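User: We ran a pulldown and think these components assemble together. Before we commit to crystallization trials, I'd like a predicted model of the whole complex to look at. Sequences follow.
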Amino acid sequence: MTTPTSVIVVDGVSKRFIIRRDKSLKERAIHAVRRGRTSEEFWALRDIDLEVAAGSTVGLVGHNGSGKSTLLKLVGGILRPTTGTVAHRGRVAALLELGAGFHPDLSGRENVYLNASLLGLSKKQTDGYFDEIVDFSGIEPFIDSQVKFYSSGMYVRLAFAVAVHVDPEVLLIDEVLAVGDEPFQRKCMDRIRQFQSEGRTIVLVSHSASQVHDLCDRVVVLDGGHMLFNGATDAGLHVLHRGYEEAMRLEEEAADTPRPMATVGPVRLLDARGLSRSSLTAGDEVTIEVTFVARETLRGWRGAVTIENGQGQVVYGANTHRSGLAMPDLDRDAKVTFHIPRLDLVKGTYSISAILESFEGIPVDVRAHAVTFDVESDGAATGIVDLRAAVQVERAESRA
Amino acid sequence: MTVSTAQQRLAAVAALPLVPAGRPIGMPGVLRSLQDLWAYRELLGLLVRRELRARYKDSALGFLWSLARPLTMLLVYYIAIGKFLGAEQVPGRPGGIPGFAVFVFTGLTLWTLFSDIVAGGTGSIVGNAGLVKKIYVPREVFPLAVTGSALFNFAIQLAILVAATVLTGQAPALATLGYAPLALAVALVFAVALAFFLAAVNVTLRDVQYLVEVALMVMMWASPIIYSWSLVADKLPAPWMAEAYLANPVTLAVLGFQRAFWMQGADHVYPDHLALRLAIALGVGLVLLVGAHRVFARREGDFAQEL
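Assistant: Here's a predicted model for the assembly, 707 residues in total across the polymer chains.
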């Protein structure tokens, strides 16, 4: 393969929003007299340089308000950058909101044509795709009734059907994939995968780490309008995760909650030699060590840990109650260790949370994502557990 | 097989030129805008149809309702002003306007076109906020879609007007019919220019749409639609006042339209050099249209964030 061409080139782009507080003539007149400041500046994006290679799928991730959607709108030409340039090759279709062009009083059929036209399809092209669109949406019996009588599911299905049949080189998607019922969602995902296999470029904004993990080859992490990271998906999600942790820690510090009777103290991840580690190899022997700090005496308590992967899925959980341990009263600090002989997890980023529960199983104190660690492996496996399958292929002796 | 299509696609993409997203920051030429609009002409057609079809979708009489307003206005003005206030010419009484019904309807037809475009165009960007914020299309299509649907209504009213003149035995004469397209062009150019300008301003200053409603009411009475030009000419003492009155392009357009379709008033007093005045107004209007479009284009990139 030759070196991939860039389909989107974002060069030194910044975007400033001016928040005006005077939308009416009266307010303007008053401000003119008082000479007060009538607007505030806000930089949604700062000095973004980004190239997206043809045929790749890029995930834009970040906190709320980090500038993801703004960047997507700049690429789609909906907003104009304050400085810098955005350029692209081929047709760009933006799925920023499904059914944005739908008019409630028009029939489904009329709306299909209108929406397709808004997305840049000619009438002739729409004629060609029409049956396919209706078929994909699965609402054929209602295609000639007004869309205001549609259920929200039907509405969104028709809109998505139109959007995926537009024949773009670059598809911009802003959190619109979580629509419809489960079979329809699967259909949408299949369609996205088909888009990928056809060599189209996709730029995706999503808050779902697992979706980004599934679909994207690259991740761009934005934070407060700056580009924090641009690279491989796993590493990007890791960066994002670290960012969330930091935010959560600060939030916890700020919150002034009443002190619990006892708290979860330091959590450590130790290797076979008893050394603290943050990166491991699949199959390593590890020990999770949690210290519980006593304030007042707590009887019949339970200590628990969970391990989550980068997509927020719990891959393992254990507690002292299930292990049938007789717990001493927590009148002084206690250390609980969870010894794991083989950490057979697939490559990825994981975090450990520790929980202190009362004897009824009610949480007394939680330390979420206390430790984050990476697991390295040969990368042959996907999923959760590294089962270390030996893979072989064999040819049949003769044709059946 | 998918691999080969993917490779073909990648090769095809590599051959495509790198174009800036949306409109460039520098001023797009009028030419570029026209090219864009041409590419989106089908969308424009669909939007016009949407405006027309959606408006009276669930009513039994459908788009006939769009005729109800001008016809009611005609009836009201004819009875209240023509008969009660005695504006209509009746045998045995000097003064008054001959063929008052046709006279009023002629003026109203052109005025309705103008006011529909200006009022509708002003709200068109704000009204289509959902689209403006989510999809890139040349934003000119929204005021232009309003213009298209207003023109459609105008065409129907014009057909009724012509039918009425024929029925009253006063069909338009070929000699003066030339005023009609000229007058229509003047009204259209000024209306679209105002629609572009006001639509752009209305995005940041929402008061504009209410101001426009009031201004349009005043403008209607500032043109000889219900009363005739000769009544005004008599009342204005100084010649410069008459000139000021005639500087209003809508007034000129209405007069031109009356000249073409109101045959009972063929010997009525018209301002001198009406055709020349219309031609000058058209020239000025075209310059304003380009200017208004430039204002529109400069502000266009900020519409999505202001809405």
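Residues 175 and 206 of chain A are 5 Å apart (CA to CA). That may be worth checking against your pulldown data before setting up trials.

User: Thanks, that helps.
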